[in-house]
From TrEMBL:
Molecular function terms from GO: cysteine-type peptidase activity
Swiss-Prot/TrEMBL keywords: Hydrolase, Protease, Thiol protease
Protein name: NlpC/P60 domain-containing protein
Pfam families: NLPC_P60
GO terms under biological process: proteolysis
Family: Belongs to the peptidase C40 family.
PROSITE patterns in alphabetical order: NLPC_P60
Source organism of the structure: Pseudomonas veronii
Domain NlpC/P60 positions: 6-145
Length: 152
């Protein structure tokens, strides 16, 4: 891993840490006021320069319980690729309900930062039953190690 990529990955985690203690609020993305897990990832990776500003469109709070379309994975596959072993700054995404629908920023081997319903943005351990009892996949962003020459 290049020194530049290490800086990018550290920037992702630093951006995620800014959101700690922000309350959980479905479809919101205002630092300190409210955010859900999808918007947390969008805001963090955009602020770190790894994805453009995107709008996932409207989605019901329980969409993953009643639909089979892998909307979350569709976005992840657009900007990243699936990996077996995550590194700092990668994305972990769990299957809740019928689809992969809960994402987080990987901090280290076991820790993540995520927005969790009724809790808000927190550090969590992937070994906790509320996460470990669900299927998980990991993604890395395509722009890691790529410089935009300061053209953000």
């Amino acid at each position: 891993m290049s020194p530049f990529e290490v800086l990018q990955r550290d920037a992702v985690v630093a951006q995620a840490e800014l959101w700690l203690r922000t309350p959980y609020q479905h479809r919101q993305h205002l630092l300190g006021v409210g955010v859900d897990c999808a918007w947390l990832l969008i805001e963090v990776y955009h602020a770190a320069g790894l994805i453009p500003s995107i709008d996932p469109g409207a989605y019901a709070q329980g969409w993953h319980l009643h639909r089979s379309e892998e909307r979350y994975l569709g976005w992840l596959e657009l900007y990243g690729r699936q990996i077996d072993t995550p590194q700092r700054g990668d994305v972990a995404v769990w299957k809740f309900g019928r689809t992969f629908s809960h994402g987080a920023v990987v901090v280290d081997e076991h820790r993540i930062i995520h927005a969790y319903r009724d809790i808000g943005v927190e550090f969590a351990d992937m070994r906790e039953e509320r996460l470990s009892s669900h299927t998980v996949r990991y993604y890395t962003l395509n722009r890691y190690g790529v410089s935009d020459g300061g053209q953000q």
